[in-house]
Write a structure and sequence with these properties.
It contains three helices and five strands; from the N terminus they run βααβαβββ. It is an alpha+beta fold and 95 residues long. The chain has one domain (2-93). The protein has a three-stranded antiparallel β-sheet with strand order 1-5-2. A two-stranded antiparallel ribbon has the order 3-4. Strand 3 and strand 4 form a beta hairpin. It is elongated and about 45 Å long. The mean pLDDT is 89.
């Protein structure tokens, strides 16, 4: 379905994808520097693959925020916070 969107259109994909995005250099072009996690999980790898295949970037990790504002899910016991909801946009439309 993504391949049917004209290149001139702005494409935004967002959602709760349970993807932890880390700070690995291999993903930095897609993810940016401002992620909550150190290591990318399997869902994060898949999200990066989708983004790369469709010339997209993860905007939710491109901009600097305070650590307390990065989390999108908190465990019921309040012991862990994860950044698992993300926003992807066309790389050529990020400005």
């Amino acid at each position: 379905m993504v391949d049917k969107v004209p290149e001139s259109d702005l494409m935004i994909i967002l959602g709760d994808v349970n993807a932890k995005l880390g700070k690995e250099p291999a993903y930095q072009k897609i993810i940016g520097k401002h992620t909550l996690h150190e290591e990318t999980n399997r869902n994060g790898e898949l999200l990066c693959d989708i983004a790369a295949a469709n010339n997209m970037i993860v905007m939710s990790t491109q901009l600097q925020h305070k650590q307390i504002h990065k989390g999108t899910w908190r465990s019921p016991d309040n012991n862990s916070i994860n950044q698992i909801d993300h926003v992807l946009v066309n790389q050529n439309k990020k400005q």
